[in-house]
Structure formats: structure tokens, C-alpha cells
Write a structure and sequence with these properties.
By secondary structure, the chain is an alpha+beta fold. The protein has three domains: about 10-95, Alpha-Beta Complex (DNA Primase, Chain A); about 150-220, DNA primase, catalytic core, N-terminal domain (DNA primase DNAg catalytic core, N-terminal domain, Alpha-Beta Complex), CATH 3.90.980.10; about 230-340, Dna Topoisomerase Vi A Subunit, Chain: A, domain 2, CATH 3.40.1360.10. It is built from eleven helices and 13 strands. A five-stranded antiparallel sheet has the order 1-2-3-4-5, with helices on one face. Strand 3 (about 55) and strand 4 form a beta hairpin. Helix 3 crosses helix 4 (about 85-95). The two termini are about 40 Å apart. The structure holds zinc ion. Zinc ion (ZN) binds next to loops. Zinc ion (ZN) binds near residues 66 and 68.
Length: about 350
């Protein structure tokens, strides 16, 4: 645990659900689910009445309608349960769920710890309360994250298996994540064009079991609004190389071809095209190097035709089906993309 003392209460409340907290205490199984609410015996006063303790999942809050006469959010729950301050509870939650603490006060104002959480004798909330919906891709920008995943293990063997050097792993802030939403995965920070972290992608280290996706992205994150590595690639000289995936981009970067961005897929969105336009001019060169498969070929043709009116665009065709940038040697990559090795 770091010596840091500051913690963003708002971020903790946003990151951790009551269900996760109950699960942490091994209490979730004894709760009964009905619509939006969970009910069970109160873990705070160790009650036996199976309906006195209620949780609203959507509001992420709880109430005890008996002896405690209390309620509140996840912080209040842990504070009561552990008999500690809300601040200490926040630090505990950060530790349990791998959330950051900082050695500086956060820019946003902290919510002051409340001496007494509001006791509301309201009936359990209606099950129609707002639910998290996956947002449509309407061009809304991604909001920078207020937290960082910490204690990522950059020495995980998967990263060296993929040919990344310790320097590249540090450059990109990669590491195996032990806890939280990306637990068991390699966390890859995604920055927006301004260099702010807007999401973490989680790559399963190796071939995932059936039904487990290779990549996990946070719900609500709009990858079509970003180009991976653009914040750094934008400042580099030479032709701009466009690849599909994170590892392809990192491989090129590692070979010294630092002006590289990844689409995080095989199609170029309108927003991504606009980003490229902003970071190039009519004298710029773009090399499209998508994977040599059906999706990659289709994406390649589309991208070339859309970028050609603005700048010099060249498509790289691999000799063999199934090939991708990661498969090429540094020499081959330099021959294709130019620049000194
Ligand atoms: Zn109680």
C-alpha cells in the first residue's frame, strides 16, 4: 500500500457497486433479488429479519429499516461494517478493488466525509430506476478517466511472448491486472488525442476459453472516437502508419516506427478520419497496413479511397493470407514504412 492519503470519493463510488462490496464480504448469496433491489438480513447490526436490509442496485445505495436506522453509499457501508471513518473505508475499497490513491489532492473537490449518513425510511426504490445502457455511438467524446489502474504487473510472461521489450511495456503502461473489471487480463491504457486516459482495454493473455472474449472494453467506451497511440504518434516525423490492433502498433513503435496509430478494428470511423485529417496535411503520407484477411482487405480499400483526396496514401499488401504487421521483422517494417532503422 502506498503512503498516499488522498482518494477521490466520487470515483470510488462510481467504480464500486454495492453488489461487489457484498460479494467481497461473502454476503451476496444471502441477498434476495427482486427487480432493482436486493434484500436480506442486515449485515451491519447482524439482524435476522430477511427484509430489513435493502439495496438499490441502480442507485448504488442501501438502507437498514431496523436497529441501524441508517443507510448510504458503498463508502458508508464499509465504514459502518468496519467501524472506521469514511476516508478509511475509501482507502480500503481502493485496496480491495485496485483503485488508485494519489499523493496529491485530486483536482475535483472531495466530498467531505459525512458524520451521519442519511437515514431514510423510504420504501425500496422502484425497479424502473435508471439502468446502465450501452450508449449508441453518437459521436459523444469519451470522458477522461478519473482513476488509474495500479499495481499492474508489467513482468507478465504474455507481454514478452508477444515480443514486447521492458521499455515498450513501460512506454505503454501495460500490465497484468489482478483485481477489478479487467482482472486476469493485460490492461492497455487508451489515451485520447490530448493524451488523457479514456479507457483500459483488457487483453486475455493467450487463447481465451470459448465464450470469453479476447478483448474487453469498458461499457460505454466509444472506440470509434479514438485512435490508439495518436497522442504520441502525432508528434513524430515520417509517414503515418495505420494498423488494426494494439500489439501491431506497439510492435512498430518498438521498431522505431513511432508515427503509428491503431484503429482498434478494421474500419475507419468518421471521427477517426477527422482525427487523421487534423494530424496531417496535404503533403503527409499515410501507409495503411491492415491484416491480410477479408475484414482487413475491405477496410484497406475503404480507407485508401477516403483518405486519398486529402493526402498521399499507400496501402501495404502482405504476401501471404493471414499476415499482420506483428509478423514482420524490424527490417521488413522499415523497408515498407521508410525511416532509418
Ligand atoms: Zn441494520
Amino acid at each position: 500500500m502506498s503512503k498516499s492519503q488522498f482518494v477521490d470519493f466520487k470515483a470510488v463510488k462510481a467504480a464500486v457497486t454495492m453488489e461487489q462490496v457484498l460479494q467481497h464480504y461473502g454476503l451476496l448469496d444471502q441477498m434476495k433479488r427482486s427487480g432493482d433491489s436486493l434484500s436480506g438480513p442486515c449485515p451491519i447490526h447482524n439482524g435476522t429479519n430477511p427484509t430489513q436490509f435493502r439495496v438499490s442496485v441502480s442507485k448504488n445505495c442501501w438502507n437498514c429499516f431496523s436497529d441501524c436506522k441508517c443507510g448510504g453509499n458503498v463508502l458508508d457501508f464499509v465504514a459502518k461494517k468496519e467501524d472506521i471513518t469514511v476516508h478509511a473505508a475509501a482507502l480500503k475499497l481502493c485496496e480491495w478493488f485496485n483503485l488508485p490513491t494519489t499523493d496529491k489532492p485530486p483536482e475535483e473537490e472531495n466530498e467531505p466525509p459525512r458524520a451521519t449518513p442519511p437515514a431514510q425510511r423510504t420504501p425500496a426504490p422502484a425497479p424502473t430506476a435508471s439502468k446502465e445502457k450501452s450508449q449508441p455511438d453518437d459521436g459523444t467524446p469519451n470522458v477522461p478517466l478519473k482513476f488509474r489502474l495500479e499495481q499492474l504487473d508489467g513482468k507478465h510472461p504474455y507481454l514478452t511472448e508477444r515480443g514486447l521489450t521492458p521499455e515498450t511495456i513501460v512506454d505503454f503502461g501495460l500490465g497484468h491486472c489482478a483485481k477489478g473489471m479487467m482482472a486476469g487480463r493485460i490492461a492497455i491504457p487508451i489515451h485520447n488525442a490530448e493524451g488523457k486516459v479514456v479507457a483500459y482495454a483488457g487483453r486475455w493473455p493467450g487463447e481465451p476459453a470459448e465464450g470469453t472474449p479476447k478483448y474487453k472494453l469498458p461499457p460505454g467506451f466509444r472506440k470509434s472516437q479514438e485512435l490508439f497511440n495518436l497522442d504520441r504518434a502525432g508528434k513524430e516525423p515520417g509517414p503515418l502508419v495505420i494498423v488494426e490492433g494494439f500489439f501491431g502498433a506497439m510492435k512498430l513503435w518498438q521498431c522505431g516506427l513511432k508515427r503509428v496509430v491503431a484503429l482498434m478494428g478494421s474500419t475507419l470511423s468518421t471521427a477517426q478520419a477527422e482525427l487523421i485529417r487534423k494530424h496531417t496535411d496535404s503533403r503527409s503520407q499515410v501507409i495503411v497496413m491492415l491484416d491480410e484477411d477479408e475484414a482487413g482487405r475491405a477496410g484497406r480499400e475503404d480507407i485508401v479511397s477516403r483518405l486519398a483526396p486529402w493526402l498521399f496514401v499507400k496501402a501495404h499488401l502482405f504476401e501471404q493470407a493471414g499476415q499482420q504487421p506483428e509478423h514482420l521483422t524490424p527490417e521488413e517494417l522499415h523497408n515498407i514504412c521508410g525511416g532509418a532503422p
